[in-house]
Amino acid sequence: MSAAPSAPTDPARYRFWVAEEVRFADLDVQGHVNNNAFGVFFEHGRVEFLRHLDGFGPDKPWLIALARSVIDYRAELHYPASIRIGVGVLRLGNTSLTLGGAVFKGDACISTQEAVCVLLDAGTRRPTPVPDSLRAALSPYSLV
Length: 144
Known about the structure:
The protein is an alpha+beta fold. It is built from two helices and five strands, in the order βαββββα.
């Protein structure tokens, strides 16, 4: 499997956005947002993106599982802060999709993520092909 390209750091590349607020609980002893909080920010972006596309939820015959997550930390983030998370598609496979995401404060890219998500049949919990309807919904959000 070839590696997906890195998530872009240019906010103009993203067509889907989620707003988020940095919480005091997101800080570590050094006074900046802890690396674990970024995982939560990116999860929020992924879930809202997939819900927006009607690709995620209890009514679907598939589940979406995070199989791999790579986060690059590019700058410090402090409390208080309003941020936004951009999400798009880096790669579509047979049973998986690789989403790219970035956390921005204003136009400054604070962090990026590559997230490999695998579709699982809800009954068997085994990988299942990405349905054509979801492929079509994802295509306008390509980052490459």
